[in-house]
Specification:
Elements: H1 3-29, E1 32-33, E2 39-40, H2 78-90, H3 95-109, H4 116-143, H5 146-180
Length: 186
Amino acid sequence: MSLKSKFFSSAVTLAFAVVAFGTFVTAQDAAKTTEDGQKVEKQGRRGDGHRGMRGGKMGRHGGKRGGMFGLRGIELTDAQKEQIRAIRQANKPSESQMAEMKAMRDARKAGGEITDAQRQQMKAFREQRRANQESVRAQVLAILTPDQRTQVEANKVEMEKRRQEYRENRKERKANRDTTKPTDNN
């Protein structure tokens, strides 16, 4: 086989590979369609777009927090989304409060002791946040339609069921781990 035919064969193979790869990538990115021809948004895995547990920019547990108050999976109108966004923005803690609590938490993590006054201040802050969250929840529920509220309650029941299953599985794993631990009888 001549050098010219080897080169031509390699070029054709490379061109075919590029076209095949491009087609494969395009097919993977295409939106799914239902039987009636409507496009369906691709749903990502849980946690897409975050940096991991506690290290992410999206909250304590990372990930996109679309499930606030059990709203995940509920179709909201644009007006409802805007109202919820405004409620959350209006009820955010002040930057000074957050900075003060962060400073106390960091000092405690660094091995320092906090005073009783600081401990009381942190307790008051937590209670205020809890009351504020309940207020926000009530305001958000007031925006929803009766069907949407029913869905929220169903989500709440389902979440509690999953929590209970997780607790039971965790107890079983711990029990299995404790029974299978080798004993050190030296």
